[in-house]
């Protein structure tokens, strides 16, 4: 059985997730940070792409300052070519880590379990099947935008949570939550189901279901 997939991201009021230089900037307020860490604590695994690791170097753990006695989720990185640095924080011993690579990966990666799936790039449906067999029942996808798009485009996500911060970033080149190639035809647009709207501090949290 495939794991339940929850996509979570934060964007500005004009739909941007980072600066035009693609440099990460904090959009979530303190109340939303508590929500994010509680959500991580509730999931079996948290997943990002290698782009997020290279640009932001996240640890992807649950901080005790937000959640007392946290249950650390498994950290998963999609890294087709094996580009993850040896000193990446996601390889720390604070929680187990899985790095999913393609058959073209020629690099050794220490400090993580390696799953080979896909010829030139990671086959996400196959990866989810493998993770399900390992007993992983829920995965929190936190980025980046190409990874989020891949899950949505392939119909692999069940929920989409978006926090909207009270700010404007602007910029034609500023990334948005779903990147990649996008849809070409109107009939290929991915429909969502709005389940809940909640005020979180000075921001707004939208809970969507993803139509199958």
Report on this model:
This protein is an alpha/beta fold and 212 residues long. It has a single domain, classed as Dihydrofolate Reductase, subunit A. 18% of the residues lie in helices and 27% in strands. It contains 4 helices and 9 strands, in the order βαβαβββαβαβββ. It has a 9-stranded mixed sheet with strand order 5-4-3-2-6-1-7-9-8, with helices on both faces. α2 (50-56) links the parallel β2 and β3. The mean pLDDT is 96.
Count the E strands. Answer: 9
Q: In CATH's first tier, which class applies? A: Alpha Beta
What's the overall average pLDDT, rounded? 96
Order of helices and strands: EHEHEEEHEHEEE
| Count of DSSP-assigned helices | 4
Task: Summarize, please.
By secondary structure, the protein is α/β, with parallel strands linked by helices. Helices cover 18% and strands 27% of the residues. It has helices spanning 30-42, 50-56, 124-133, 145-153, and strands at residues 4-12, 45-49, 74-78, 97-101, 113-116, 138-143, 159-165, 192-200, 203-210.
